[in-house]
Amino acid sequence: MPFNENEENNPDITKKLLILFLIIIVLFSIYVFKLFSMQILNGDKYRNQSAKISSKTKTIPAHRGEIFDRNANLPLVVNTESYAITLTPGEIPKGHYDSVAQRLSKFLGIKKTDIDNKLKKAKVSDRSFTAVTIKSNVSFSVVSNIAENINDLPGVSWESKPIRNYLGTGSLSHIIGYVGDITEDEHTQMYNYGYDRQRQIGKTGIEKQYEHLLQGIPGQERQTIDVRGRIISETPEIDPPQSGKNLVLTIDSRIQELVEKTLGERIGASVVLKPSTGEVLAMVSYPFYDANLFNRETASEEYEALNRDENKPFLNRAVMTTYPPASTFKIVMTTALLQEKTFSPKQKIECTGRILYGGRAYHCWVKYGQGWMDLKEALAQSCDVYYYTIGRDYLGIEKIAQYAEKFGLGHSAQIDLPTQASGLVPTPTWKERTRHSKWVGGDTISASIGQGDLTATPLQLADMIAMVSNSGVIYKPHLLKEVRDPITNEIIEEIQPEVLLKPEGIDEDVWLELQTYLRYTATDGSAKFPMELLSVPVACKTGTGEVDKYKNSEESHWHSWLVAYAPSDAPPEERICIATIVEAVNKWEWWAPYATCIIMQGIFENQTYEEAYDALHMERYLGRPEVRRD
Amino acid sequence: MKEKSEVLNLFDFGILISVLLLTAAGILFIFSARFTSKGIINDTQYLKQIFFACLGLGSIIIIVFLDYRRIKRYSFYLYLGLLLILIITRLVSKKVNGAHSWLGIGSFGVQPSEFGKIIFIFYLAKFLEDSKNDSGLSRFIIGNAIMLLPMALILIQPDLGTASVYFPIFLVMAFMAGVPARFLVFELSFLLLTLLFATLPVYNRFIPDVPYKPIMILGDFKLRIVLIISCGSVSIISAVIRSYFHGKKYFYWISYTFLCITVSLILSMFAQKILTGLSSTHPNYEIAQALNEKNAKKLNIETEDFINIANGKVSEIELNVIASKAGKKPEKISKTAKKKYLSTTPDSRIPKFTAIKFIAGDLLKHPSKWLEFPENWNGKRIGGYWHDGVGYQMKRLIIFTKPEYDRQGAGWNIYQSKIAIGAGMLTGRGVLQGTQSHNGWLPEQSTDFIFGILSEEFGFIGALTVLLLYLFLFIRIILIIRHNHNIYGTYIASGILATYAFHFFINIGMLMGMMPCTGIPLLFLSYGGSSLLTAMICAGILMNINYFKKELH
């Protein structure tokens, strides 16, 4: 020890030296402890940090799953190889930037100033080793041109950025949807699922609904970099990406195309279902859009234009728009009456063309009345007065609403799409709560013929007719049929039919009775023409919806509905259901029944639209119905 | 003449060996620092360092056998010469790393301020010995003057790091020479408090997640005046009680403490200005900027023009052009701009708050709010990321508390060096294997941050060895002083001890994130001919003192 030797110095100096010694020892101990804590106790933490700052991770995008129609042979969506050209300013030899940028701009067909701006926007310095994307969606030929001249283009590189190519018929865009760059909000939501900001994400339709199946798991490429971002490691560490699953839809491309053509350029929607499973065979909403527009340079302008279009092409009318079901609602009314037995189906009511209630006249669609009618005839002829009376005097709004809900109206159809409307079944409580006014008899009268506040989507009405076809069951409508492995094509999951609704308290014979009524409607009722043209037996109900907007217009404007199933003589497993609406904005053609006819013909005779059109001699009838039909 | 065995006995091999070991380690890591990831040595720094090490070793051997006491009578002239050279250096030398501190012949330059330390130590030792019988106060004041002259000349180079070493040398030597400790403690605490009061408000605004309420008093000009007056009053009253009313001894210490606080509070305001750079910015930069923007908008002119007009940097023609664009009269614009311009001047402008309102209002009513203080006095949290207005020196002084805050800027060095040290773990990554250094992450690797490479490549074992070598050196110096019977030699040795220890603790403390960022190298290890040569000459002097310890007994 320094202080206990014999050679005594000045005691004052010794004391002071002791103080200095103590200060040094205390500080020194703190330093050693700190060093120990950093290197031994927290060494792992610092080493991880060191690895983190000095490695650059590049994401290798996963192959997004492809989508097929129910036959699983031809894809509806594929990934097309596409390239993005990048520029790394730090790799360009000093003073050569201008010439490189000039040459690159020629290859890409853009201006040199565009390249300057891109670099400026990315806020990278001239010596940075961060690659900046100059142009995406570059074709392979441009890339191969650049590759041939790469010696003249130091710093230029390309990366593969596959794009989604939608091959199926146009109306599929509403079903499949599209993908786009992840937004800030989506990124926050999906952060925990490992999404980074470069990812593409499903925005609508199946692409969004089954994002978790389609996305796959991106791989990673790790490289060691130095402080300037230069890559040092010779070979990168690679975690390979895992491709997303392939999806097989319930959609039948042939039927989809048939329905699309049949609907033609008429604003409206049509849904074709397999009632015994809930599989959607076709779902068309017009107008639709081209999902490939997002791959084009002009994407944002086109998107804006479509967004401003008053016909709203991005709206999937089959599931997102609600319409008054009009006379098709008489199916529900008839079921209620048959089950409740408050009024005998055989008893007749005279239709005089209108009834008076609460100081107002409620008209039948046949102005001068249809005479004495029983239930079967009233449904077949779609007599409004009969149903006004039944609704007001023998059922009442509570019963009507109760039966409407048994048919799934007012509740989501739960199809596997991200957005869908539920429609509305009005009740006195609802009216009180939302409108703050009392329910009046007139409201019941309107509801009895599916007008007023009662609304439903075309898909819900397809479900309604499916319920009749199935004698009391609705299977959950769905678009996904199978999930398949992208490499082996093995079926990983097959979607099984699932009961959506199975209301209690409706007897079997009620359904049978209703089925004969609906068949009678097609053979002798309002839909006699054009259903008689078909060789396949159809059961159906027409509907003509009043639209307030056109009430006083000169021209004829109504929503045209038809719900049908066929063949009515086959067991339910072999049937298909169709619900079609042609909106009132179109020229009045009473097109829904014709369309259904063509679709039925096409499906059962295995014909295309043109063949079915010719087989039915449709050209003879077109343009005929100037007056209202129901 | 001494016997041969006695010569060997008195020759201090301990110091020589530890110095040589440290220097060798330094050369190795200077070599390592210049060894890039691609395996190319792109510098000859290590060769220069070897050259200086040899020169240093030669100096040690020569110095050991000269008698240090002979310099005593020339030390005053050497001191004058030092001042002269420092003036010349400031005037004629060219700027290197932002300072005029190099006096060079060709590519070999020397830093007079480094060698100046030795001359300063010699002259201060002579003064302290000569003035043994003078009053403590006069020794303190003259000693300070001796320190301040060269220090000021170095400060204007400007080289804060080298200048700052003169202060601990003075403190330790004066302490050993019996200058009353209360003066020295006062000076030290006054300096530390000044620095603290100057940096705390800025620290408080940016670094903690929630600013500390009591510290916010320092950020408000009016409140600070109140604080200065109260502390000053306490100090004066205590002094009066002590001297006129014969109060107890502790009144003296109360007066002493509060005087120290008062002076620091006053000077820290100037220090803050110096540290933030004497530019026209202050910590409420964003607010002033926002207000300027607002006012410029009102006048319908660009913010930049607004500021230029207010500062009179716009010619008449330009002013007319701007005015015609804005559709206003030039005189009006110029007048309003000058009046409304917020030159980001004293803190008092914003936030507008009176001391009375503060004391009577918020804090007395809600004492619990003292520690949770998410908002500013007038309800606005002055937050935001720090900006250039904070000043480079100020940032460097603060950032060590949380280098992650400004990882890309002022915090980069400390952030990277902490990672380098921590990543070394127990045994290190191995020689030439450090990724922090070889991939360029660690800055100034061969000079100030050399301990970072050493710790990364040799780990805790290597770093601890270096620390222990230093500790050995310190203890060895203390022992030399202990056994020395020449007061002059004792003072010189304590000055050298102060130099070594100060460099050691400040440099390594900075690398481990415990000390503010200052440009002080680690002696023996850091690259730099002047500092290595100085450190080795000092070692030679120590050995020399040891060699002659028995004489004059």
Tell me about this structure:
The complex is a heterodimer of chains A (630) and B (553). In chain A, the strands form 8 sheets. A 6-stranded mixed β-sheet of chain A has the order 7-3-2-12-20-21, with no helix packed on it. Chain A has 630 residues and is α+β, with helices and mostly antiparallel strands. Chain A contains 22 helices and 25 strands. The radius of gyration of chain A is 35 Å and the shape is elongated. Residues 1-8 of chain A have low confidence and may be disordered. In chain A, strand 20 (480-484) and strand 21 form a beta hairpin. By secondary structure, chain B is mainly α. Chain B is 66% helix and 1% strand. Chain B has 22 helices and 2 strands. Chain B has a two-stranded antiparallel ribbon. The A-B interface holds A 2-3, 5, 7, 9, 12-14, 16-17, 20-21, 24, 27-28, 30-32, 34-36, 38-40, 42-47, 49-50, 53-54, 224-228, 232 and B 37, 172, 175-176, 178, 418-426, 435-436, 439-441, 455, 459-460, 463-464, 467, 471, 474-475, 478-479, 481-485, 490, 494, 497, 501, 505, 508-509, 512, 514.
Structure characteristics:
heterodimer; A: 630 residues; alpha+beta; 6-stranded mixed beta sheet; disordered N terminus; B: 553 residues; mainly alpha; 22 helices; 2 strands
Structure in a nutshell:
The complex is a heterodimer of chains A (630) and B (553). By secondary structure, chain A is an alpha+beta fold.
Which protein chains are joined by the largest interface, and how many residues does each one contribute?
A-B, 40 and 44 residues
Proportion of beta-strand residues of chain A: 15-25%
Query: SSE string of chain B, helix = H, strand = E?
Result: HHHHEEHHHHHHHHHHHHHHHHHH
Number of helices of chain A: 22
> Measured on Cα atoms, how large is the radius of gyration of chain B?
28 Å
Question: Spans of chain B of 5+ residues with little confidence (pLDDT < 50)?
Answer: 278-283, 344-363, 367-383
Spatially, the strands of the biggest sheet of chain A line up as 7-3-2-12-20-21
Mean of pLDDT of chain B? 82
Shape of chain A: elongated
Number of strands of chain B: 2
Largest sheet of chain A: 6 strands, mixed
User: Mean pLDDT across all residues of chain A, rounded?
Assistant: 88
